[in-house]
Design brief:
Blueprint: H1 6-9, E1 13-17, H2 21-32, E2 37-42, E3 55-58, H3 63-74, E4 78-81, H4 88-101, E5 105-108, E6 121-124, H5 127-134, E7 144-148, E8 164-169, E9 180-184, H6 191-200, E10 203-209, H7 217-224, E11 228-232, E12 243-244, E13 250-252, H8 255-268
Parallel strand pairs: 1-2, 1-4, 2-3, 4-5, 5-13, 6-11, 7-8, 7-10, 8-9, 10-11
Antiparallel strand pairs: 12-13
């Protein structure tokens, strides 16, 4: 008859709510350090996501109830929410499901971007406000506004007459509105490539969401060409500091801190 130690002989599994560079790096480190089996969950927003170490699942869970049932069934040692900082719904769902199942939860959140001294930075609440802010930016006929946004979020910009837009997507799509050209590319992009693109296309304004993190090439390229930066602030669902956050879980600002938290979780099991 077993003494219950068998459950600890099984390699623990960590659910990573992914889709970001940090989620990929975390999965790689968990495998390389032989700490746990990463199970990365992707929303399925792109047609051909890159290969990931460990296990991968694609598609939604079916809201809080579906994620709660999944956590009960799979017996994860912990959940790491490494989704995009604007994925507020899945973050809220993860908070509720982990509370219901008592599964430890960490939010891996990138530090926000801050304006640099002397640059033209316009802070706005959403895409509608970003479109309104662009009305005060001078854009000539041979210049463009670069939209670093998902294809579902560009609708408000269709109402701005006389402005040429450039939208980059990971999968080919038809132009969403007249005056918007679509280019296809999958990051990460080098600063040299981004700056060359901005200069070639005569980009005078960048519209993006405050995804945060270090070394963002498009942001640095916009600074290099002295383009106006229209920055959409992220939802105030979590704090931007180490420790607890507004959803009740722990927060880490980088992969190393997330790994330390996971090691401590596994030690307490």
């Amino acid at each position: 008859m077993g003494n219950g130690s068998e459950r600890y002989a099984v390699t623990p599994r960590i659910l990573i709510l992914g889709g970001t560079r940090e989620a990929r790096l975390l999965a790689e480190r968990l495998v390389a350090d032989d700490l746990a089996v990463p199970v990365t969950s992707l929303a399925g927003a792109t047609d051909s996501p890159g290969a990931l170490p460990g296990e991968v699942r694609v598609g939604g869970f079916g809201g809080v109830s579906g994620l709660t049932a999944h956590l009960w069934q799979e017996g994860y040692a912990a959940v790491v929410d490494a989704t995009h900082p604007f994925a507020a719904r899945i973050t809220a769902n993860a908070a509720a499901a982990c509370e219901a199942t008592a599964v430890p939860r960490l939010t891996l959140v990138r530090p926000v971007w801050e304006p640099a001294l002397g640059e033209h930075w316009v802070d706005v609440a959403d895409e509608t406000a970003a479109a309104q802010a662009l009305r005060s930016v001078r854009v000539s006929a041979n210049q463009r506004v670069f939209l670093a946004l998902g294809r579902q979020r560009v609708g408000p910009f269709a109402k701005i007459a006389g402005v040429n837009f450039l939208l980059r997507t990971t999968d080919p799509i038809d132009p969403p509105f007249e005056g918007c050209e679509v280019i296809v590319g999958r990051g990460p992009f080098s600063l040299e490539a981004e700056e060359a693109l901005f200069r070639r296309e005569r980009v005078v304004a960048l519209v993006c969401r405050n995804s945060g993190g270090e070394g963002d090439a498009k942001l640095e390229a916009a600074r290099a060409v002295k383009a106006t930066i229209v920055m959409i602030r992220r939802p105030a669902l979590i704090t931007q500091s180490e420790g607890a956050n507004a959803t009740g879980g722990a927060t880490a600002l980088d992969v190393d801190a997330a790994l330390s938290w996971i090691v401590e979780c596994l030690r307490r099991r």
